[in-house]
Amino acid sequence: MYKVRVPATSANMGPGFDCMGIALDIYNTVEVHEIPEGLIIENHGRDADLITKDGTNLIYRAMERVFRQTGFVPTGLKIISYNDIPVARGLGSSAASTAAGLLLANALIGEKLDMKRIIELGTALEGHPDNIVPALIGGMTLSYAQDTSTVGYIKLDFPEKLRMLVMVPDFLLSTAMARKVLPRQVELGNAVFNVSRAALMVAALTAGELDHLKYAVQDKLHQPYREKLIPGMQEVFQQAYNAGARGVFLSGAGSTLIALVDADNNDFLSRLKGFLDSMSCKWELKYADISRQGAARIQ
Ligand code: HSE
């Protein structure tokens, strides 16, 4: 039996569409057993009823990809997951499943694939590297796909003194649906805006100049279009800034919102909670720290 722990991730972080992401200390734990035949999948914990238990399961599909690449034929498999990562809320639950499947399959074949290859397979499965890279290696990452078989990344500094308030609404949003609302063409002015903000994000974090963060999280590529899928998003952003947030952004494709908050801002959550409680949808609030290690074999 092999077991891995994989983190939630938040992609984009405002302007870094499809390239920036951060691993959070919210985890799924997944184990695999080789059994005489067949496929058995058990899901436990958060949103377990939303996860498939057949050949379409993302953990299984990632495992299959590794087996196909390496010619390994398992007898049968039993996959058991214990989940804390919300599904279809922009917290990387699919990347976590893919990461788990790749690492567990690699364990079954005797660790024949190196991390570079695992990242490339994960990016091919996910379609973009911004969740899968931090899920696998942890931290905050800037990642890029150079071509179908080359994925590069750099781990960025993320200040010790920042925490993330994760605001998870009670409605699901599929990435496919949230990508459909994006325009195919981007105006030059908007492209320039995002280039400057994404570069500012890296520079501000590296230099520890956190006053720039409220500008660094601005974006004109995806958030303005996705806003209509998340009722009250702008009002939540405004309230979070009023309560002292350093920056606020849509997590991945949504529906979760994340505020970057100074660790010593002790009344941030209570100041925001009153407003969120008055909204028509219900919000679950939870502080998360960066997961610096990322996915790991624990057995
Ligand atoms: N970068 C992706 C998007 C993340 O915003 O659509 C979703 O997983």
Radius of gyration: 19 Å
Q: Distance N terminus to C terminus?
A: 8 Å
Question: Which consecutive residue ranges, at least 5 long each, have pLDDT under 50?
Answer: none
β-strand number:
11
Bound ligands, named by name, code or SMILES = L-homoserine
Number of helices: 10
CATH class of the largest domain: Alpha Beta
State which percent range the strand residues make up: 25-35%
- pLDDT averaged residue by residue: 96
CATH fold topology of the largest domain: Ribosomal Protein S5, domain 2
The helix-strand sequence is EEEHEHHHEEEHHHHHEEHEE
Q: How many strands, what sense, and barrel or not for the largest sheet? A: 7 strands, mixed
| Helical content class | 25-40%
Q: Using the 3D structure, state the CATH architecture of the largest domain.
A: 2-Layer Sandwich
Class by alpha and beta content: alpha+beta
Tell me the number of structural domains: 2
Anisotropy-based shape: globular
